[in-house]
Amino acid sequence: MSFTAEVKDELSRVEGGPEADVSELSALVRVCGTLSFYGSGAYAVRVTTETGAVARTVIRLSHKVFELDTQLTVRRSVLHKTRNYLIEMRDQPGLEDALVELGVLVPGRGLASGVPGQVVSTPGRRAAFLRGAFMAGGFIADPRGDFHLEMAVTGEALAEALVSVCRDAGVQARLNRRRGAFAIYIKSFDDIVRFLLVVGAARTARAVSNVRRMKSVKNDVNRSVNAEMANARRASGAAAEQLALIDRVEAGPGLSGLPPALRAFCDLRREYPDLPLAELGRRAYPPLSKSALYHRVLRLEALDAEWRDGGGGAGRSGEDG
């Protein structure tokens, strides 16, 4: 089962009140249903979906809220090897009134545009409408990869209304036209978690938050390891440069005439060729600070530079304190 299917299965088990049920069924019919007109005042509704949880929810709410008769046909795609569910609500007493209450029809004006206010008039109804819209046309990426959530609908008015409903629910969503349809998408991790909590997918919201924490810990560990490796490479490179410097001084002015502090540093560096200066200072007797050893390196560099510039014998400065 895909991650999206798992979320929809969780949402199909959310129990709402009578008004919330109407709003949820309204979104399901609006997003993945089609309405047919027959003659004068005869209607039929067809809802198609590839998700069993969505089909069950449409049938359950149709029976529970409006006591409508439904017919279910299960078809299998040979090409994609997936099931397709067709739920039909043929013309029957109460269907027209149900369509009006669902906000699909406006009495005397035909099909509704956007989302009628009564369907999303309360926080509970807004949450139910978003739940139905996601179940009907939603996709959510596995949080272990690049995380995002979107809902695909047809009709610009409906798409803009969904963005507005998201905003009223405290979720920032954006609208994008895509291949003749519209996608309402949410990119922000915090907004996705908030959306999941609003629509009733608390279990998924917790799982997503756990994945984010694991990602954060993994990233912190990776950054720490990378920093340590970079420091080790820098320290190794610096130690190699100091050894090469000591070799040059030995071949030039020589080590025997160096002040005791500098000779001690050269001996210590050759004894421990890989240690960084801070650790090297702890091996000295008495222990020395990193800055003290670095000062010795600078003095050796100055002696080497004087010799290279033809200054003759190296200067013999006093010992370090």
Automatic annotation (TrEMBL):
Keyword Chloroplast belongs to the record: no
Ranges of residues in domain Sporulation transcription regulator WhiA N-terminal: 21-103
Keyword Cell cycle in record: yes
Signal peptide start-end: none
GO BP annotations listed: cell division; regulation of sporulation
Domain WhiA LAGLIDADG-like positions: 127-218
Family, similarity comment: Belongs to the WhiA family.
Protein name per the record: Probable cell division protein WhiA
Record organism: Granulimonas faecalis
Gene symbol of the encoding locus: whiA
